Amino acid sequence: MDIRSMHFVERVRERLDDDELQRNLKRTRGRNAASRAAAVAAFSDFDAVRQRATEIRRSVLRDLDVWLERFEAKATERGATVLWARDGEHACELIADIAKRHGVRTVVKSKSMVSEEAGLNAALEAAGVRPVETDLGEYILQINDNEPPSHIIMPVIHKSKEQVSELFARVHGTPPKTDIEALTHEARAVLRPEFLGADMGLSGGNFLIAETGSVAIVTNEGNGRLCTTLPRVHVALTGIEKVIPTLEDLSTLLRILPRSATGQALTNYVSMLTGPKHAGDPDGPEHMYFVLVDGGRADLLGSEFEDMLRCIRCGACMNHCPVYQTVGGHAYGWVYPGPMGSVLTPLYQGLEKAKDLPHAATLCNQCGVVCPVSIPLPELMRRLREKQVERGLRPWSERLALRAWAWVAGRPKLYALATRIGVRYLRWLADGRDRIQVMGLAPGWTAQRDFPAPAAKTFRELHAERLRAKSRGGAR
Amino acid sequence: MSGVAPGSRGEVGLFVTCLVDLMRPSIAFAAIRLLESAGYSVVVPDSQTCCGQPGYNSGDSEAARALARKMIAEFESFPYVVAPSGSCAGTVKVHYADLFADDPAWRARAEALAAKTFELTQFLTDVAGVSAVPGRFSGSVTYHDCCSGLRELGVKAQPRALLDSMPGVRRIEMRDCEECCGFGGLFSVKYPDISGAIVQRKCESIRGSGAYAVALGDLGCMMNIEGRLRRSGDALTEVIHIAELLAGPDGEGG
């Protein structure tokens, strides 16, 4: 997917001015957070499981190559083909080749964020293959002129049912309806023949299990199961970091993923897919492929950003982020929004292409607190800010202001003088009122709120006066 | 507590914080009154300035390290260091050691300082065991949990316990009291539109609580919330630092 993160500020302004989007954000705000809170409260063991989940993901990353090789050996033994993709573009080439080899005309897709990273749909279309998104949210976006998702597990959370109704009426040529169940039935009627007629099913993968060579897929709609069992060919597309050692590890992670994501104890479907159909199997694909994408992940191993690879894509960070909840996912400009996106986008796409994202956070650490695998997201954003400073990617005015502040603050006498002058300047601006409404030094501040006027003197001055008065009093 | 003679429990170094020094000296004087009434003698090192948080959060670690060294040298001789701010105390307590990851000598000094540094209400409750305060406040109060104090230091029950010890205070919880106010230091200046929308929600939560006043422990957040309330035409809701509320009026004025 093309990146537009460099236009973050403009994109934010557009979204804040979009009344319909703001209404939709307001309607869903806090809903997932509340569901998660209820699920965590009802689960006595949550912190212990969170720690175990963190340790599973941490230890697998320490020997990622070993686990991937073990996975490859096991998956191959079970009859699947494992292909390694350098990046998204390479993944698209590999999948287009598979499609060609098996004479594929239509691909039914269940949700895959790596497919968004790779821009797979456009690549398939260019290769003469028709992709059909079957996750309801993704389907809505696809028929809306390939609109990108705004959330990693609820791709269409930014739309109202009225907007979907209008879209369905326009695209399907049916009478408008706003009953959600009726809308779902309508999509189902369109999609059912696609499942039956498709030559290939493409899925993502929540986890790859090394000891069995399986992919685990966690869904709520059942489309994932249809995509991976009905067509002749199944391709599981995911990132190389998704491997875990054992089924036991899977059970730990499954206890924490849906609770963190939607507050569910378990999703409606958990599918484990291992190799193609074997003799005697009633169903399943004839051919199974894994396309495992690096796309910048291997570079993070052993780096100060390795913690980010633990991510299990639950979306809790964005569900709890005050910034995401204010501007929505599209403002971030690439595949991954919210705190995890503000870390991943610059790492996968380049620091200079997403300069704003690591700064577009108040560092409130609500994301770090709810992350099921304990990723210190605010700290990673701060380290990205450090990288930007090191590489001279911040505006000179900001660097100068910070350096000047540190220089003055390192010299107490000069600092005392500067703050004395500063206070008097602000008092002059306030002009006898208790607040300042326009301030040239920080126009951003006063665009949104008043700046309270300071007291007449600094603490340092007043404290010195009091100490002097006391010592005079003591001498008397 | 009121029976404890000032200074009988030892010395506390007060880190005023740059924002309080510059904007609201009354908060630091309130902190002094609270610490003295809890039996401590308060020393305010004259050369103190800024803990380095702006540089640290902006990715300028070099600048942050210089100020951290200065702060450590100024305060490491005290048995306790107290700041009327969760975010400044948090910088010392949680982040200083990281700044000196490659410098064992300074790292050890940073860790030693971190161990004895506290946010004001945390110190009063957890260390001093204060259960009554000198302030006399009458009315309903809602408490906003500032992010660093809450999520870095675990300041949650302490300010509430102190508020509940005041007979005139009727404490009301606002909706989403743990949600960020949108200040975020330089965030509020770099992304004013987003910050403004977030603080607007916070103001609605505060007004929705029906409380007469909102109390909180960080001046940055306080200026953000107060500035937005006033801009949006609310001249009535009082925004008050927890130190001033707990300490009551300053006998010496100023």
Topology of this structure?
The complex is a heterodimer of chains A (476) and B (254).
Chain A: H1 8-16, H2 19-28, H3 31-41, H4 46-62, H5 64-77, E1 81-85, H6 88-101, E2 106-109, H7 113-118, H8 120-126, E3 130-133, H9 136-143, H10 161-172, H11 180-197, E4 200-203, E5 207-209, E6 214-219, H12 223-229, E7 233-239, E8 243-244, H13 247-261, E9 269-273, E10 287-293, H14 297-300, H15 316-319, H16 324-327, H17 338-349, H18 366-370, H19 377-390, H20 396-409, H21 412-430, E11 435-436, H22 443-448, E12 451-452, H23 459-475
Parallel strand pairs in A: 1-10, 2-3, 2-4, 4-7, 5-8, 7-10
Antiparallel strand pairs in A: 5-6, 6-9, 11-12
Helix pairs in contact in A: 4-13, 10-11, 17-19
Chain B: E1 11-14, H1 18-23, H2 25-37, E2 41-43, H3 53-57, H4 61-75, E3 80-83, H5 86-99, H6 104-115, E4 117-119, H7 120-127, E5 139-143, H8 147-153, H9 157-164, E6 169-171, H10 187-190, H11 192-209, E7 213-216, H12 219-231, E8 238-241, H13 242-247
Parallel strand pairs in B: 1-2, 1-3, 3-4, 5-6, 5-7, 7-8
| Structural class designation of chain A | alpha/beta
Uncertain regions spanning at least 5 consecutive residues of chain A: none
Spatial extent as radius of gyration of chain B: 18 Å
Q: For the report, how would you describe the main beta sheet of chain B?
A: 4 strands, parallel
Order of helices and strands of chain B: EHHEHHEHHEHEHHEHHEHEH
End-to-end distance of chain B: 26 Å
In DSSP terms (H or I, runs of 4 or more residues), the helix count of chain A works out at 23
Percent of sequence in beta strands of chain A: 5-15%
DSSP summary, beta strand count of chain B: 8
